[in-house]
Automatic annotation (TrEMBL):
NCBIfam families: xth
Cofactors (names): Mg(2+); Mn(2+)
Residues the record marks as site: Transition state stabilizer: 153
Cofactor binding description: Probably binds two magnesium or manganese ions per subunit.
GO BP term, pick one: DNA repair
Amino acids binding Mg(2+): 9, 36, 151, 153, 259-260
Organism: Streptomyces smaragdinus
Annotated keywords: Hydrolase, Magnesium, Manganese, Metal-binding
Active site: 110, 151 (proton donor/acceptor), 260 (proton acceptor)
Pfam families listed in its UniProt record: Exo_endo_phos
Key word Metal-binding present: yes
SUPFAM superfamilies from the UniProt entry: DNase I-like (SSF56219)
GO molecular function, one term: double-stranded DNA 3'-5' DNA exonuclease activity
Protein name, as recorded: Exodeoxyribonuclease III
Amino acid sequence: MALRIATWNVNSITTRLDRITGWLRSTDPDVVCLQELKCTPEAFPTAPLRALGYEAAFVADGRWNGAAVLSRVGLEDITHHLPDQPQYDGVTEPRAVGATCGPVRVWSLYVPNGREVGHAHYAYKLKWLEALRAAVATDAAGSRPFAVLGDFNVAPKDEDVWDISLFEGATHVSEAERTALIELQKEGLSEVYPRALKYDIPFTFWDYRQLGFQKNKGMRIDHVYGNAPFTAAVTDSYVDREARRPGKKDAPASMAPSDHAPLVVDLEL
């Protein structure tokens, strides 16, 4: 059974709906993990997605967070939020949703940004990643293909940012954040590293400002970590840079790109 799974921080599912649905038609994924929905539960575009054959499980609160799993191969055992997910300012933010999609189980994750080292949000980020590690232990050790996908807001290595000298003392590259990813992998997960296309390092994020995409001033912060049954089935993985490419100047706002590109993984199960 061939299965295509993708993860994409869409930076507002309603604002970019035409771009997203067009990509779904052209790329034809079976399962898609989305992050940064930026919509209320009532505004989630269930009908347009259903018209393309996708069921949806999501968490959203109308602010800058939100995560979803879209599936056209079944959607069962839905879990909203991580077990024992930490709060920030007394709120359980909508950053994680898990679901079983046909033969695989996935989590769509939008890891907190952290803002700056030493900030309360940075401490929250580290607690959140520890809660993630605890949440995946059972599924990672099982025989069913399992993966966590999403925007981790962590660049695992220095080469995963365009110029490490500009990130000294900053979030996304700190030792504690990188260690948290290493600890996550100790639960039985391995990274599905995308193959290089135009550039050696497959960045997944480029700032809108100062021609970040055009100059390839990017970061590799969107990741897929799978257990052994998942990674053994991988036949290809790549970052779809075309989905990040700016549209025509006269294109409608709904066709504007996210600042992230989709990461696509093909499996043969």
